[in-house]
Amino acid sequence: MGTANNVLIFADIRNGTLRQVTFEAISVAHQMANGGEVHLAILESLDPNQIESLKQLKLDRMWHVDHPLLKTFNLDAYVETWVHLIDLLNPDVILTGHTALGRDVSPRVAARKRIGLLSDCIKLDTSSTYEFVFTRPIYAGKAYVQRTITKPPFFVTLRPNNFVAHFDTSLDQSIEIKTFHPNLSQISLRTVVTDVVRKVTSGVDLSEANVIVAGGRGVKSKEGFAPLEELAVVLGGAVGASRGACDAGYADYALQIGQTGKVVTPDLYIACGISGAIQHLAGMSMSKTIVAINIDPEAPIFEVADYGIVGDLFEVVPLLTKEWQRINR
Amino acid sequence: MEILICMKQTFDTEEKIFIQNGEIDDDGVERIINPYCEYAVEEGIRIKEAHGGTVRLITIGGAEAEAAIRTAMAMGVDEGYRLDLTDFPADSDEQTTSECIVQLIKQKQIPYDVILCGYMSIDNGTAQVGPRIAELLGIPHISTITSLTVDGRQVQVERDVEGDLEKVESSLPILLTAQQGLNEPRYPRLPDIMKAKRKPLHRMKWDELRVDVQMIQARTKKVAILPVEEKETGQILS
Ligand SMILES: Cc1cc2nc3c(=O)[nH]c(=O)nc-3n(C[C@H](O)[C@H](O)[C@H](O)COP(=O)(O)OP(=O)(O)OC[C@H]3O[C@@H](n4cnc5c(N)ncnc54)[C@H](O)[C@@H]3O)c2cc1C
Ligand SMILES: Cc1cc2nc3c(=O)[nH]c(=O)nc-3n(C[C@H](O)[C@H](O)[C@H](O)COP(=O)(O)OP(=O)(O)OC[C@H]3O[C@@H](n4cnc5c(N)ncnc54)[C@H](O)[C@@H]3O)c2cc1C
């Protein structure tokens, strides 16, 4: 079984709060450190209340990285800061989420430091003869590869929603928060974000949602998504779509799930009016429980569904919403 | 405008995956241009159509990848490079791939104002190669773009950030990775398919790259390839 002396996690923040995947990374870090040190680096301004609550986390040290250039995302500033911190702390293992942030920054840092990077991992095995074995899906989830690292330090990005998050608030220790001021005076910011248009309405991020209600061409119109949104709200989930629905203009491409869209692993995936093409399955077949609603009993989506409902989604979905509201009450 | 595309050939999306002796069985599979690379190819051609210039392409792959290169040429790519790493004497990973592509660019002095990659491949799918190439060349990158405007040396980009739309500005030279929504790739026409056969395609082997194998060999190692567990048949409710 492997041990790392020093694990460094780069936090992922969305709208002022730490994303779930960061907590998941903390538990992976503890599994790998097995007594070694675990550090968390936070680069954006967090809500002060959150910083307080983080003191309860099982961490050896938290690095609050403070610099005006880091208030919003800038690729060059982020890459330099991550490199500075890695040079300072000399970790054996660096962890972050396989999110927009992790996907943008980690390969550049890995290339700069000429270190290995295991991307989009869904499982860690510490029991093999190799130090650490990570599993990642390949061929759009049609197979897995297990990979290990030949030489520390190495980088790992974790697919959200696949590791159990760690919240140990029973500890009475109060961890040390250090402020780190990176020297960014020499860098030029070669890309500048001029505007961000928020399109994700429900506030629940598709890649981290525990419940997803997805609609396909069977939803028949933009308005047809309304009952799906109602069900998603009741379940505290997010709305997704098939490419069929996006191509037809019923939903934004940002919601597309599948091979050329997002890959999601919620606890519950409800597919409404989706036929179940292989390219759609690539994005959702690893969901923990799949419910399919389709009028066609032969639809291939039923082959991956744990529960299939043969029926009209416009009848079934509102019934589910009502039923759920009743249970909630 | 000098346009360079890094393109990978992958299995057709409909292919089932079989594992033979611990490896993915590629016997007789249909292959396609990686869908995200196809957006990159299309965008590169559109830049040329709007601003003039040359579209070049690099593929790392075996002889079978030439079908994909010819298809891209039929779409409008002018010149291709295929780097065959089959005899590479050490383990390889994404670091090896990106270092080799960068060495090829440097040694052949392939010019670039814009480098276009797919955002990820649909087989190995690490989404590492584009950003790694940009870092090694010392140029910026913008990933998962859904819209591109080139105006002189300035570029304006819209990108998909987990569902939100981000507007970003930068300047040439730059590396961009293509996300779905960027464009609708064209179908090659028959006369263009014929013409593509005569376009220049340069073939290279790894030992023509003066690379330090130690330096670029894999830092990660494959342990096993595993099938996906069969799902139990679900329950039909009525
Ligand atoms: C390279 C490539 C990449 C692709 N990437 C993706 C991807 O990322 N994601 C993706 O989703 N697709 C992707 N596709 C497209 C994919 O092949 C399918 O075309 C698409 O998923 C079909 O969408 P759909 O299931 O919504 O539509 P359809 O296949 O048209 O299915 C609609 C379903 O709705 C049912 N239905 C109709 N009315 C009702 C009703 N009232 N109640 C209940 N059910 C009803 C029908 O029985 C049918 O099964 C890709 C294709 C290619 C070639
Ligand atoms: C020794 C060796 C042998 C190899 N043999 C083969 C082979 O026989 N066939 C084969 O297809 N690949 C081969 N490769 C490449 C390798 O399989 C992967 O493509 C590579 O590691 C990239 O990882 P990825 O698929 O996760 O790419 P990602 O990072 O997910 O890909 C993102 C983008 O990077 C670019 N890119 C990625 N891979 C390539 C590539 N191969 N050529 C050009 N651009 C690329 C594309 O624009 C792509 O859309 C070999 C690599 C090495 C080092």
Automatic annotation (TrEMBL), chain A:
Electron transfer flavoprotein alpha/beta-subunit N-terminal domain location: 7-193
Co-factor binding details: Binds 1 FAD per dimer.
Taxonomic superkingdom: Bacteria
PANTHER family listed in its UniProt record: ELECTRON TRANSFER FLAVOPROTEIN ALPHA, ELECTRON TRANSFER FLAVOPROTEIN SUBUNIT ALPHA, MITOCHONDRIAL
GO terms (BP aspect): fatty acid beta-oxidation using acyl-CoA dehydrogenase
Protein name: Electron transfer flavoprotein alpha subunit apoprotein
Organism: Seinonella peptonophila
Residues bound to FAD: 217, 242-243, 256-260, 273-280, 294
Family: Belongs to the ETF alpha-subunit/FixB family.
InterPro entries (alphabetical): DHS-like_NAD/FAD-binding_dom, ETF_a/b_N, ETF_a/FixB, ETF_alpha_N, ETF_asu_C, ETF_asu_C_CS, Rossmann-like_a/b/a_fold
